[in-house]
Design goal:
Blueprint lengths: L15 H8 L7 E7 L3 H12 L5 E4 L8 H4 L3 E2 L9 H17 L12 E4 L5 H13 L5 E3 L1 H7 L9 E4 L3 E2 L2 H14 L3 E3 L4 E7 L2 E6 L3 E9 L5 H5 L8 E11 L10 E3 L4 E4 L5 E4 L13 H14 L8 E12 L5 E5 L2 E8 L5 H16 L11
Parallel strand pairs: 1-2, 1-11, 2-8, 4-13, 11-18
Antiparallel strand pairs: 3-7, 4-6, 5-6, 9-10, 10-11, 12-15, 12-16, 13-14, 14-15, 17-18
Helix pairs in contact: 1-7, 2-7, 2-10, 4-10
Length: about 375
């Protein structure tokens, strides 16, 4: 495989066995029941749910490495309460995903943990914090306002200027360990997962869908496009572009520190911080509207380091071990596009999750599979 996963705290903490699983590539079959375009976590979960729904022959294809873009570059955040929106549907999907991850953790290890989050109140607006806590509690989440003294007790190395909000059920996972586990399970069930297989265009006819790759074609009864921020580039071959665009995010990691240096995920007004299972303290979460401009911006890294030094003075002089970036698929209405493309009942979309791809992957995949297999009455995907 010509392309490799970019350097990150996630690639640095993969076993050789899992690295081999992600590096391997199956030959794309000539014909399948359903083809999934995109081998990120959304695409892999979608393939898993299609198999569970009874689809006999499923293939996953991706132009780059497996989990090579946003899925391998994110924070692995399971921030159920923090990311809760004023949407009953998304809230229900988040709760469903939480149950799915708990079950999956019994099948294989992917550093699944619910260590909680502390949202820092950096403006000392206690009424606002109290109102947010009440709103989250009414929505069924655990949320507890905490004073500055309580924050310091929970996180002794954190120089918290004020109190905040404790969200004890939010958590993290290792996205590449998760991807490797999903891929291994898919292959055991006969699903082919191909990297370096770029789809040039999509052709539809009365018999199904045809994916035209560089050196072959794949015929399918239906296709699911799960290409994150790149989704509109494929759907435009069908005459439709969902309002999804890339927002670059940067993360960095410090060398491993003793366990318990950070006990929770810490959310400031700009960035977030947590300690991975490997001991590395990870920081970042920038929002850069720069299109598909690749690379890590030095000024962004400096901004993250400055915020880190203010909140964690003891870590200010610790060197940066690595930094990396990813393109989050931002959708204009803050909700993912899940369902058939308008005017194309054999082409389905599962994309536009922005910062909630890991969080919503299991449930959005189940919802998509239900629609595709006819267990729900499909409606056009509404961006």
């Amino acid at each position: 495989m010509s392309e490799q996963l970019r350097d990150s705290v996630w690639t640095r903490t993969l076993s050789d066995e899992r690295r081999e699983v992600l590096a391997a590539s199956d030959a794309a079959p000539a014909a399948v029941d359903v083809a999934v375009v995109g081998a990120g976590l959304i695409g892999l979960w979608t393939a898993r749910e299609l198999v569970r729904a009874g689809v006999q022959k499923v293939a996953v294809v991706d132009r780059g490495p497996i989990a090579g873009e946003a899925s391998g570059a994110n924070a692995g955040g399971l921030w159920y309460a923090h990311e809760a929106l004023d949407s009953d549907v998304l809230a229900a999907l988040g709760r469903e995903s939480g149950e799915a991850y708990r079950r999956l953790a019994d099948e294989f290890e992917f550093d699944h943990a619910r260590r909680g989050m502390i949202e820092l109140d950096l403006r000392a607006e206690q009424p606002e914090t109290l109102a947010r806590a009440e709103k989250l509690q009414q929505a069924g989440y655990r949320a507890e306002p905490v004073t500055r003294q309580q924050v310091r007790s929970l996180e002794p190395d954190l120089a918290a200027p004020h109190g905040g909000l404790l969200l004890p059920d939010d958590g993290q996972l290792h996205p590449l360990k998760l991807a490797a586990g999903l891929v291994a399970d898919l292959r055991r069930q006969g699903v082919s997962v191909s990297s370096g297989a770029e789809v040039r265009r999509i052709e539809t006819n009365s018999d199904g869908v045809r994916l035209v790759l560089a050196d072959q074609a794949v015929s399918a009864e239906a296709v699911v496009i799960a290409c994150g921020a790149w989704t509109p580039m494929l759907t435009e071959t069908l005459g439709w572009r969902p309002p999804i665009r890339p927002i670059r995010g940067v993360l960095l990691a410090l060398d491993p520190l003793p366990p318990g240096t950070l006990r929770h995920t810490i959310m400031s007004n700009r960035y977030y911080y947590w300690q991975s299972a490997s001991g590395a303290v990870v920081a970042g979460g920038s929002l850069e509207d720069v299109g598909f401009e690749r690379g890590v911006d030095d000024q962004t890294v400096a901004s993250i380091r400055a915020d880190l030094a203010q909140l964690f003075p003891a870590l200010a002089d610790r060197p940066t071990a690595c930094s990396w970036y990813g393109f989050r698929p931002f959708c204009e209405d803050q909700a993912p596009v899940i369902g058939p493309a308008p005017g194309h009942d054999r082409v389905f979309i599962n994309a536009g999750h922005f910062r909630r791809g890991v969080l919503l992957a299991p449930a959005s995949a189940r919802l998509l599979a239900d629609q595709l297999t006819g267990r729900l009455s499909p409606q056009p995907a509404l961006p």
